[in-house]
Write a structure and sequence with these properties.
Elements: E1 25-26, H1 30-41, H2 55-63, E2 66-70, E3 75-77, E4 85-99, E5 105-111, E6 116-117, E7 132-145, H3 146-155, H4 158-183, H5 186-201, E8 203-205, E9 208-211, H6 215-222, H7 226-238, E10 242-245, E11 248-251, H8 254-259
Antiparallel strand pairs: 1-2, 2-7, 3-7, 4-5, 4-6, 4-7, 8-9, 9-11, 10-11
């Protein structure tokens, strides 16, 4: 299996938007690439983009990608920019976000290894990114140029089917999130965010499940104020449901979040 690693990817970053940083691309080499990809596709069910494709087809598709490492908080895809690349997270994590007219950064869906972003690049009609995507922590991704992934989709139509299935899941997530905003309290939304992120991004530790996340990130994801997030976390910490330190939350008794 061969992977292209020689083309530097430098997406445009909008000027004057709070919270954006220039994308910093770390050098890539074949050794960590093979290790990261092999680890991810060892359980092929984790990579929904490649579901239903033969192993040889999967290898062909992966071989057509470039391999990139991005540092934490790098903005890889910017809202309104042409959707000219497709990305597959193979190590680390990423998250969708938007900037409101008032300049507030609102986090949307968090992405774990095996998930894609930039799916609009699969469409026949060129389009723009609907939201921005940033790397949550140092991560590795596979990147396909639009013309490359479109050519592969012609050869392997299952790629488009898989992309539509993923888009459907994202719409389902959006509907649930929107209904939660209308029907659920701030306490319920924050509890749901904590439990959901712990299931996807958390790491087991002696005291429970650890999340490397700040109060501000939790507040922006749950669409509540920073004050409310801090108050609820302090309350849950007193009850023994969580343990909070700077930039880190450990879920000790998740059931107490839901019942509180």
């Amino acid at each position: 299996m061969q992977f292209h690693t020689g083309h530097k990817y430098n997406p445009a970053v909008p000027d004057g938007v709070s919270g954006h940083r220039s994308t910093r691309v770390r050098p890539a080499s074949d050794a960590p690439l093979r290790s990261d990809v092999a680890s991810l596709i060892a359980d092929r069910s984790r990579v929904r983009l490649l579901e239903g494709l033969s192993e040889s087809a999967q290898n062909t598709i992966l071989a057509a990608a470039s391999y990139r490492r991005f540092s934490g908080h790098s903005v890889v895809a910017s809202e309104g920019e042409p959707a000219d690349h497709l990305f597959l997270v193979i190590k680390g994590s990423a998250r969708y976000f938007v900037i409101t007219p008032q300049g507030r950064k609102v986090y949307l869906l968090w992405l774990v290894p095996g998930e894609i972003f930039g799916g609009a690049s699969l469409l026949a009609k060129p389009s723009d990114f609907l939201v921005s995507t940033e790397i949550a922590k140092n991560s590795s991704v596979c990147v396909w140029e639009r013309k490359t992934i479109r050519s592969l989709a012609t050869r392997y139509p299952r790629l488009v089917d898989n992309g539509l299935a993923i888009a459907s899941d994202y719409l389902t997530w959006y509907l649930a999130s929107h209904l939660g905003l209308l029907c659920h309290s701030a306490r319920q939304r924050l509890a749901h965010v904590l439990v959901s992120l712990a299931n996807g991004l958390g790491r087991k530790c002696p005291d429970g499940i650890q999340l490397d996340i700040t109060n501000e990130q939790l507040a922006n994801t749950a669409n509540i104020t920073l004050f409310t997030a801090s108050r609820l976390l302090s309350e849950w910490q007193r009850r023994g449901a969580v343990a909070k330190s700077r930039g880190r939350v450990v879920l000790r008794r998740p059931e107490r979040l839901i019942l509180s």
